[in-house]
Protein: Fatty acid hydroxylase domain-containing protein
Amino acid sequence: MVVGYSWYAAGLLKQLSSTSKGWHMYLHPVAKAMANLLFLPCLFFLAASSALAFNDPLVAGSKSNVTEDYTSPLPTVRPYLQGFVEETSWYNDLVLGPLIPPHLRSKIPHTAQTWLRNYTAGILIYFITGGLWCFYIYYWKRHVYFSKGGVPSKEPILLQIWVSMKGMPIYVSLPTLSEYMIERGWTRCYLSISEVGIPGYIMLTFLYLALVECGIYWMHRGLHDVKPLYKWLHATHHIYNKENTLSPFAGLAFNPLDGILQASPHVIFIFLVPTHFFTHELSLFVESVWTANIHDCIHGKVWPIMGAGYHTIHHTTYRHNYGHYTIWMDWMFGTLRDPAQSVKAKSS
Structure:
């Protein structure tokens, strides 16, 4: 954290020192600099404080909470952690129940069932959300959103689907690993909102999501700024760099390691911030839907949400709008470019 904080501060000072305008022009950059220098340490302080304040040994757990029984598909855990296992087992039943007969599924270890459930659900979500969204914007509402052309051809869409399907078995390993660690009590996840109260739930969820947004921003920016990472990982996603090559199916068209790195803040911060288990699961589900939405090239004018209009600029300039759900990190670190600015630049 100290290294990252020093990086932030050095970058901000460099931006300020490179400005040659009068002192009154420093007010806006200084305001952003103050926000950066004060906000991030406070955010991490709150995260650390919350982890201590909610230091329930049942939530924290330890290795001793789990004993492996390799003759059973379910791990044997202490009573509190058993709640996590029961919840994930219910998810497995919901998705795999109609597909695999019970007598066969009972022979599959619990973690393997979890991976299979995530893989099945991942494919369903990818094709259902991407397919419905493409039908809506490219056919049903084509005259509204693409009256002047710009609809991607079949070739880039099929390539995006192919790249996404190659990566899917690896992508779903991240939520599978997350659930494995939660079931064993290695994280700060808790089962019921009643354990922390509604005010505590709201505060902790806001803190968790703010840290996730911060983490995704810097992970994404690092994949651009560190040239070997861009060349070997992130460039796969950026071959779609024009509006007529982007589609909702591009949302998962990554090098698998790239996709895992960008989603990893969702998992990293459950070790620091007490997080409601279902809310954590829901955030991963929203992530899979959101990636389709921000690649449709339609500017919804939903400030301060980082909608597709902002993300399209990222794909065409490579150096703006690294954020994921909101624009606040880009605003704070000087990488924000509003779609209205791009329209003015094109018209001029």
Residues 62-298 form one domain.
